[in-house]
Amino acid sequence: MPIEKTHDKIILKHPKGPSVEILYYGATVISWKAADRNSSSLSERIFVSSKAALDGSKPVRGGIPVVFPCFGAPEHPDHLKLSQHGFARNQVWDVDSVVMDNEAGVSVRLTLHPNPAIAAVYDKSFALSYVVTLAEHQLSTDLHVGNPSSTDALEFQALLHTYVRAPANDVAIAPLQGKYYVDKTEASLEARSKLKEEKREAVDVRVFTDSVYEDAPSKIDVTW
User: Fold this and answer.
1) Are 221 and 174 in contact (CB under 8 A)?
2) Would you say which domain of life the source belongs to (predicted)?
3) Do 212 and 182 contact (CB within 8 A), yes or no?
4) How far apart are CA 52 and CA 63, in angstroms?
5) DSSP characters for 3-49?
6) Are 197 and 144 in contact (CB under 8 A)?
7) What are the pLDDT digits (tens) for 134-159?
8) Which residues lie below 8 Å from residue 170, measured CB to CB, with a gap of 6+?
9) Using the 8-state DSSP alphabet, how is residue 164 labeled?
10) Is 0.70 surpassed by the pTM of this model?
11) Which residue stretches of 65-140 are H helix?
12) Is omega for the bond preceding 74 within 30 degrees of 0, making it cis?
């Protein structure tokens, strides 16, 4: 299955048309084109802002940024020298290997380890391995965090901050009904800190929305 490497990214191509593009910078997925199951026409599934920098000058605004070792502003004592969302999204990753290449799909593994730039702001030992798998109708992204130290604990937050391209007037997100969340669009700090209960069977984004849910399920359906 075709795997193309350029000076700044790796491109995976499925024989039936779907493709995914991954920048070495941040290991950020910036494109996933796939067809609906009842259509052969390819559509872009990932949102990247028209204002995003793709030249490695700063983290990509959109795509699937890798967040490690802190989410948001750093609070843990080990993270106080870090910028928001940590360093994984603004470091150049290495392409380690092709994990799978057959008719079912293609996988590549990218890795990140300590380097002088990271050591200047973060002195913990770690090993990140990120596997991106493209199938005909599916993109899978799996982040593995290793602690090479046998004596030093590694405390971290990690996530894949996915930006899904979807029509704002039609999209629905579920199941979140009955979950509690903070509404970051509220005007005051007090209101932004107060938990609300989600009453809707499916959440929409027809107005400006920035909500953080507690105890969200491991599977979320985003449909339109």
Assistant:
1) yes
2) Eukaryota
3) yes
4) 10
5) EEE-SSEEEEE-TTS-EEEEESBTT-EEEEEEE-TT---EEE-B-B-
6) no
7) 999 999 999 999 999 999 999 999 99
8) 224
9) B
10) yes
11) 116-119
12) no
